[in-house]
Amino acid sequence: MPVLWMSENDAREFLATQAEGRLATCDAAGQPYITPLNYFYREGKIYFHSKLIGRKLDNIAENSRVCFEVSETVKLTVTNDRPCACSTRYTSVLAFGVARVISDEAEKAALLNLLVARYAAGKPFQKVEESHAADCAVVEIRIDEISGKRNIDPE
């Protein structure tokens, strides 16, 4: 089965369904840095939280251009003893955009509550208040470009 490119809509839908992604940033010298993290997608933007200090935030301050990746491996098949005779069934999406740290405490609290609600999966949780939102960073990625591909079993 050949690799199929996804429509932009399908790529956004896949991004919205996943629980973990990988954020790629670069420092001022161009050194890449990848961080796995939990996130949520809403209205063309990706949101995640972080400690107030750290390498990814330092990199975003130096260079706000980022790449975000999500993927799902469905099956890995080795068909015989030849190393190249294997296949992986997967879906993957890459989103390129600009990251910014949210500074408004009310906005941060609202976004943190959306993040917690997503991972609480319908279970009750204590709401994040503005005073608690000050203890962490919330980052928004505005997506400028998104693409996806999949290699799935024929139906």
List its traits.
single chain, 155 residues, alpha+beta, Pnp Oxidase, Chain A, eight-stranded antiparallel beta sheet, 8 strands, 45% strand
Care to describe what's here?
With 155 residues, the protein is an alpha+beta fold. It has four helices and eight strands; from the N terminus they run βαββββαββααβ. Strands 1, 2, 3, 4, 5, 6, 7 and 8 form an eight-stranded antiparallel sheet that branches. The longest helix has 16 residues. The radius of gyration is 18 Å and the shape is globular. It starts with a strand and ends with a strand.
Distance between the termini: 11 Å
What is the CATH level 1 assignment? Mainly Beta
Radius of gyration: 18 Å
The global form is globular
Number of helices: 4
Structural class: alpha+beta
Query: Major beta sheet, specifics?
Result: 8 strands, antiparallel
Q: Mind telling me which CATH architecture this is?
A: Roll
- Mean residue pLDDT: 91
Domains, number:
1
Q: Tell me the strand percentage band.
A: over 45%
Helix content: 10-25%
SSE layout:
Elements lengths: L3 E2 L2 H10 L2 E7 L5 E7 L1 E3 L2 E6 L4 H8 L2 E14 L7 E16 L3 H16 L9 H4 L3 E15 L4
Antiparallel strand pairs: 1-8, 2-3, 2-6, 4-5, 5-8, 6-7, 7-8
What's the short version?
This protein is an alpha+beta fold and 155 residues long.
